[in-house]
Amino acid sequence: MNVHHDEARLTAHLSDLGVQKGGVLLVHASVRAIGATTGGPATVVRALRGALGPAGTLAVPTFTPANSDTSPQYLERVRGLDEKEVAELRAAMAPFDPEVTPSTTGLLSETVRQMPGAIRSEHPQTSFAALGEEAAKIIENHHLDCHLGEDSPLARLYDLHAQVLLLGVGFNVCTTFHLAEYRVPHPVRRPYNCVVTLDGQRQWWTYEDVALDDGDFAALGADFERASPVGTVRTGRVCSATARLFSLRKAANFAQHWLPDHRPTS
Fold this sequence. Notes:
266 residues; seven-stranded mixed β-sheet; two-stranded antiparallel sheet
C-alpha cells in the first residue's frame, strides 16, 4: 500500500532532525526520495517553513545552466550536431529571466521559486530563491560576475549562520563547497558565456569567474562527515528520504582547508 506523507509528519521529522526555529536553511532535495506526499512539492515547502517557523528563512539554488555555451549541459546538447544545427540551437536559446526561467536544480527549488513572496537573485547561471525573514538580505546584490563567491547569496548565507539540509541527496550536490573554491589561495579562473538581456536586447555575454568543479564533492563531504565531531552532521529520516543537516559555515570552512590538499595546484 502506498503511504502518502502529510505536512504534519514532514514538519515533525524536520524538527526532530534539528532544523532551527527562526533560522536560515539552504535546502537541496529530491522530492521523489521523500516519497508520496499529500499535496505534492508544495506540501514539502510548507513543512520546511513550518519547521523554520514564521521568523525563519528558506533558501534554494535555482540554477540555469541551459543558456550557457560553457556548461556541460550545452556541450551534451550539441554533441553530434552539424554547424547549421548548432547555429539554430544557439539562436533559439532563451536569455535568462529571473521571473520566468525555470530552475533546473529540482522540483523543490522550482516550487519555491514560484511561491508567493519568493524572491530570486538575477545571476543568469547560479541564481537563488528565498522565502522568509532574511530573504532580501540573502538575495539582493548577487553580482553578475560572481557565481558563488563573496558577492553571492552563498556568502550571505554564511554570514547568517545558515544550516544546510541535504534531503534525499548526497554531498555531491552540496553547493556550499563552491564558496570554499573562492577562498583558497589563487583560485583558478576561466571565462563563461551565456545568453542574457542587456538594455532590452538578447545578447551573448562573456565574463570571467572562478572555475567551479563539483567532481570531488562526494569525497569532500565524506571526509567532512568523518572528520567532524559527533553531531556536526546530523543524519536521520525525513519520511522516506535520508537526510543530513549541518552548519553551512562549518562545511565551507572545512572545504577551504580540504581543497588545497586534495586538488592539483596547476
